[in-house]
Specification:
The protein is of the alpha/beta class. It has 10 helices and 12 strands. The protein has a single domain, classed as HIV Type 1 Reverse Transcriptase, Chain A, domain 1 (Roll), CATH 3.10.10.
Length: 317
């Protein structure tokens, strides 16, 4: 489901962050936490609908087995909504989220008018193609398990990763499977869309690995990581045991899970808990501990190039 697309990387004002609780937190406490946000300001996006930078080390791949592609016909769009669909498609093309397609398959779009009677949501009906995609066995966490431990904390924070699915790149065959059609043409996704089977599971695997620490980036991608970040995580590229192993290029669609390069002991669990897809919630018994945990989390998110929506996140509640 697609709402209005904003700028690729809208300027972010950390002063607008929802920090603290009136009557409970002091200006000094709020400033201490805001200082941590300012240090990591580059991973924050001002708008939740902004197009985030691609995550490192991860690709969405889809397998339909021997199923033949199904090319469905485009559905009619009401004349008064056509210009809005055109503008959305144009912005998706400009930001590199979609591209023109030559896929033998195509799924239709459905345009829904929002409650305000002006804006639209463009949905892609993947019902047919989802029936062919082989379901991943990767698990989603149980909600009850995510609530364990919160009864003993004083302060909470909630981070919403910005347009998370759009940050996952697609393999070539996944792009073809994601193709959709409308009166304006035939397109396919370059980044992972909503409503495709396995998309939530792909993203859950990314977040789990980020929070718990199982595998690390390959040397080629780790070279793109900021030096202060590597030092904080205790990573020294010159001492990597896998430096002489098989060399891949950044153009390869081999995920970190396929390369299976273990993280060192210094890069273990960051919060000691999981999250549900794109929502990261955590609590701490003291304000200082909350600030330290937030700092560690933001370092880890930067390592994987995971963006956070500032307006949809809360700190110190």
């Amino acid at each position: 489901m697609l709402s209005e697309l904003r700028e690729l990387s809208p300027e972010c004002d950390i002063n607008k962050a929802d920090v603290g609780e009136p009557g409970w937190t002091t200006p000094a406490e709020e400033e201490k936490l805001r200082t941590r946000l300012t240090y990591h300001h580059r991973i924050f996006l001002e708008d939740g609908n902004a197009a985030p930078a691609p995550k490192r080390g991860v690709w969405c791949d889809l397998d339909v087995g021997d199923a033949k592609a199904v090319a469905q016909r485009p559905r009619r769009i009401a004349p008064h909504l056509a210009i809005k669909v055109y503008e959305l498609l144009k912005k998706l093309l400009e930001t590199g989220l979609i591209a023109h397609s030559g896929s033998p398959g195509a799924s239709p779009i459905v345009v829904v008018l929002k409650k305000n009677g002006v804006d639209i949501r463009m949905c892609i009906d993947y019902c047919v193609v989802n029936g062919f995609i082989q379901l991943s066995n990767y698990p989603l966490p149980l909600i009850d398990d995510l609530l364990i431990g919160f009864e003993s904390v004083m302060w909470f924070m909630s981070l919403d990763t910005a347009s998370g699915f759009w940050a996952i790149r697609m393999t070539e065959r996944a792009k073809l499977i994601s193709a959709f059609v409308c009166p304006f043409g035939h397109f396919q996704w370059v980044r992972m869309p909503f409503r495709l089977k396995n998309a939530p599971l792909v993203y859950q695997a990314v977040i789990n690995n980020c929070l718990w620490g199982f595998v690390r980036l390959c040397p080629e991608e780790e070279a793109e990581v900021d030096q202060d970040l590597l030092e904080f995580l205790g990573l020294d590229p010159s001492k990597r045991e896998d430096s002489g192993s098989q060399v891949f290029t950044l153009a390869d669609t081999v995920t970190v899970f396929q390369r299976n390069i273990p993280v060192p002991a210094s890069m273990g669990p960051v919060l000691g808990r999981s999250s549900y897809i794109d929502d990261i919630a955590h609590g701490a018994p003291t304000w200082d501990q909350l600030c330290d945990d937030l700092d560690s989390l933001l370092f880890r998110l930067r390592y994987w190039n995971i963006s956070v929506s500032l307006p949809k996140s809360e700190f110190g509640k």
